[in-house]
Design brief:
Layout (H helix, E strand, L loop, with lengths): L26 H4 L1 H13 L1 H17 L5 H11 L4 E6 L4 H13 L3 E6 L29 H10 L4 E5 L5 H8 L4 E5 L10 H5 L10
Parallel strand pairs: 1-2, 1-3, 3-4
Helix pairs in contact: 2-3, 3-4, 6-7
Length: about 210
């Protein structure tokens, strides 16, 4: 099995409709059988086809014009979602409130659940006091599994993740039944824009590698 090294590719021939020009390390060549099997799912599995077509249509209509929020709204409409769940970080409740208003104005029913629901102290799952952010004080766990299960009970058609911490977002998506996407990714230092660290990797962040 060949390694997957697309991030190092300088050819990017996958964006061209040309045969015989793919580099020898391209998964189009090295993993052609798996790619062909995967493509069949887009054609044969109804759920996969619905999501993939909606994604492609949103990209086609809004490329370079629509914000992520606008894309989420249009995507939700294309998959005929009626009820949208918001799994939000407690630190982004204001953003979640604004988002709720936008979604409701666009005709969606909204269910929202905060990460701290349950008020369970972190020490109860095995964290030491000196490992807390606020050492020696009550500090509730982030509870993405409860967030997912409560939105499952609410029978949401689509879930939007708003600022869940890394790891908590993984647990939420793993336990959610409805299709889920990250609307806001957590980055406390860079205003929830983690790409900035990459853009600055040759300047400010060079000494932090």
């Amino acid at each position: 099995m060949e390694n997957l090294i697309c991030a190092s590719c300088k050819v990017i021939n996958c964006m061209k409709d040309a045969e015989g020009e793919d580099p020898k390390y391209c998964p189009t060549i090295t993993h052609s059988e798996e790619i062909e099997k995967s493509f069949k799912k887009y054609c044969k599995d109804p759920f996969t086809k619905k999501i993939a077509l909606a994604a492609a249509r949103v990209e086609g209509e809004g490329y370079g014009k629509w914000t992520r929020v606008k894309e989420a709204i249009e995507f939700a409409k294309k998959i005929e979602a009626k009820k949208i769940g918001i799994a939000t970080c407690v630190g982004l409740l204001k953003e979640a409130q604004v988002l709720t208003g936008i979604l409701e104005k666009n005709g969606f029913q909204v269910e929202s659940i905060c990460c701290k629901a349950g008020k369970i102290d972190k020490t109860k799952m095995g964290l030491n006091e000196d490992e807390k952010v606020r050492k020696g004080l009550f500090e509730p766990i982030c509870n993405p599994i409860a967030q997912a299960r409560l939105l499952n009970e609410a029978k949401t058609d689509l879930n939007l993740v708003v600022g869940l911490c890394i790891g908590h977002d993984i647990l939420f998506i793993k336990n959610a039944q409805a299709p889920s996407t990250v609307l806001i990714v957590k980055d406390r230092v860079l205003g929830h824009n983690p790409a900035a660290a990459i853009y600055l990797s040759h300047s400010y962040y060079q000494g932090l590698k």
